[in-house]
């Protein structure tokens, strides 16, 4: 059982991202999209990156991050919206945090 | 005597102005665009407007953004028209920038970055406040 987490809110404004991380499992994937891209610079992100053990993947929609002038982190995979379709098929369920 | 009168007068005019607080990120809601419209309307009627950027609102000022990448008409470019509407008092909360690890690199000039105490006292000088 794996879950795809779509994070769409800034952790600086809401605690959605914190809630997401609290239920995160080993084989899950995270996609940062829309205002969720701002979380790249949040302290929660630093602790998450330390937790990443190879099975858990963190992704960000390239165009959404670029539109917001956010710099690209090496530890995060850059994907397009079309890749999200494939991700939804590769996971048993999807949770949208918005 | 004259100088104290001028000082008092300028204090009085800032008391009567409108403050607009921007607290939302630019692309996921209409708040930023609505605040901009109100600011420009007040400006075109020669009403004194001050702009405050706090919380996620500070993202509206960050340089090198491009709304077209997310299919949004980039209203942020209109910020450069502020000087033509005599909107000169633009304040940014320094703490909000620090929390978000943002540099003081903005897409408009003459932005004043203020620490929390000065930011709140600048806001408290205004009689009317709208928050978006």
Topology:
The complex is a heterodimer of chains A (98) and B (132).
Chain A: E1 3-7, H1 16-22, E2 29-32, H2 43-51, E3 57-61, H3 62-67, E4 77-79, H4 81-90, E5 93-97
Parallel strand pairs in A: 1-2, 1-5, 2-3, 3-4
Chain B: H1 2-15, E1 18-22, H2 31-44, E2 49-53, E3 89-93, H3 94-99, E4 112-114, H4 116-124, E5 128-131
Parallel strand pairs in B: 1-2, 1-5, 2-3, 3-4
Cα Rg of chain B: 15 Å
Shape estimate of chain A: globular
Give the count of structural domains of chain B: 1
Q: Supply the CATH architecture of chain B.
A: 3-Layer(aba) Sandwich
Task: Look at the structure and give the mean pLDDT of chain A.
Answer: 92
Task: Give the CA-CA distance, first to last residue of chain B.
Answer: 41 Å
Mean of pLDDT of chain B: 89
Q: Please give the order of strands in the largest beta sheet of chain B.
A: 4-3-2-1-5
* Sheet with the most strands: spatial strand order of chain A: 4-3-2-1-5
Please state the structural category of chain B.
alpha/beta
Low-pLDDT stretches of chain A are none
Task: State the oligomer.
Answer: heterodimer
Number of strands of chain A: 5
Query: What's the helical proportion of residues of chain A?
Result: 25-40%
Give the name of the CATH superfamily of chain B.
Answer: DsrEFH-like
Structural class designation of chain A? alpha/beta
Q: Give the overall shape of chain B, derived from the CA principal axes.
A: globular
Number of E-state strands of chain B: 5
Radius of gyration of chain A: 12 Å
């Amino acid at each position: 059982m794996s879950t795809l987490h779509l994070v769409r809110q800034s952790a600086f404004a809401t605690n959605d991202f914190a809630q997401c991380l609290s239920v995160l499992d080993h084989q899950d994937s995270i996609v940062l999209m829309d205002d969720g891209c701002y979380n790249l610079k949040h302290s929660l992100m630093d602790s998450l990156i330390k937790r990443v053990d190879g099975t858990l993947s963190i992704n960000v929609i390239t165009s959404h991050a670029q539109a917001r002038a956010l710099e690209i982190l090496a530890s995060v995979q850059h994907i397009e919206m079309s890749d999200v379709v494939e991700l939804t098929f590769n996971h048993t369920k999807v949770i949208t945090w918005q | 005597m004259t100088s104290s009168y001028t000082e008092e007068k300028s204090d009085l005019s800032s008391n009567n102005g409108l403050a607009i607080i921007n607290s939302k990120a630019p692309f996921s809601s209409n708040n930023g665009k609505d605040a901009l419209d109100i600011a420009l309307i007040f400006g075109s009627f020669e009403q004194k407007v001050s702009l405050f950027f706090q919380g996620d609102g500070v993202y509206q000022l960050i340089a090198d953004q491009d709304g077209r990448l997310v299919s949004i008409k980039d209203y942020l470019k209109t910020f450069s028209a502020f000087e033509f509407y005599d909107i000169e008092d633009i304040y940014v909360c320094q703490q909000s920038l620090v929390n978000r690890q943002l540099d003081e690199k903005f897409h408009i000039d003459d932005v004043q970055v203020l620490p929390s105490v000065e930011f709140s006292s600048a806001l408290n000088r205004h009689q009317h406040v709208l928050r978006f």
